[in-house]
Amino acid sequence: MTHPYETPYVPPPYPYDLLDELRNEARERFGSVIDCSIGAPVDPPTRAVVAALSTSNLERGYPPSIGTLEYRQAAARWLALVAGVDIDPVTQIGAAVGTKEFVAMTPHFLRMRTPDRDTILYPEVAYPSYEQGAVFSGCRAVSVPVDESWKINLAAIDPADAARAVCLWINTPGNPAGGIDDLEAAAAWGRANDVLVLSDECYIEFTWDGPPRSILQHGVDGVIAVHSLSKRSNFAGARAGFYAGDPEVVHYLKEVRKHGGLIIPGPVQAAAVVAFDDQSHVHSQREVYLERLTIGLNLMRAVGATVEMPGGGFYLWAQAPDGDSWALARTLAECSGVIVSPGEFYGDRTDYVRFAAVQPTADLQLALERTQS
Predict the structure, then answer these.
(1) Burial group, residue 264, by CB count within 10 angstroms (0-12, 13-18, 19+)
(2) How many domains does the chain have?
(3) Prediction pTM value
(4) What range does the domain containing 238 cover?
(5) In this predicted model, what pLDDT tens digit does every residue of 306-323 receive, in sequence order?
(6) Terminus of the chain with fewer CB atoms < 10 Å: N or C?
(7) Same domain, residue pair 184 and 110
(8) Which residues contact 30 (CB under 8 A, 6 or more apart)?
């Protein structure tokens, strides 16, 4: 048997662990840390969601890996409401244990389906799990350039790489830079090149530049959209998401994931139905994040960074005044207690930092005041 790896795999340091020194400095100076390095929600899920989580009586036995029918129906209703698409909950939706595991593991499953291909395409400025998914699958990780608006440049994909591609990842609104891709063009590119397009849309309801966008608005053939309750419903700790689109691909993934035991716990599936069916909490959360982004803009500009509101998402992608992202991260920790992520975590951008507007509004306001005192 031929081994797919030439050398033993050594996991790289987890990026956010590299910030521990800055966290310690902020803690020594201010007694606490305002950690804006990770997009982890701090606001509570709704009481109805928590009640459903604790009273479902589904903790016994094994829930279906593909998601209960109620779970998939709720996801389909939500997609129809938010994106205006009609998706069959039986044949075109499957459950995912959050979506980070889906991003990291799906290239491996797809590689088994198309063993004659060996390349994963993803944006050059992006969440690091796209690249790691390629590594885990034994594939070539090939980044695709983005333009000045942080949109993926499909025309820059080498035809030789397209011919070897297992899939193309896109992310809209984008993390970290908040770019809004042309999803119709991405779907058309994938079909023209016979490459599955995986569209990570977990920030869809935090789109600031225009209406929510989904690749499913442009048909399901050759595309999969990936969604999560982590951001929209402050439910990251429960790990609940789904994938939807091309029925042949969905069927394949549902079947292979069964064998891997990739299952959302029953109580979480019940709570997720409640979360999908409520939009009021999302409308409120949008206002919260807009306020925090505004404070963040003022904070980043106060330390000399160049930054604008993103097209979507709750991150600020800020350019360091001297081109040194680690120096800017240290300045923020020392003068405000805020921890941000250097741009090198998201590609070869050592001149940017990412600020996640997830900490309590009062804490962010305090950080701003510290920079102004």
Answers:
(1) buried
(2) 2
(3) 0.95
(4) 47-276
(5) 999 999 999 999 999 999
(6) N
(7) yes
(8) 337, 370
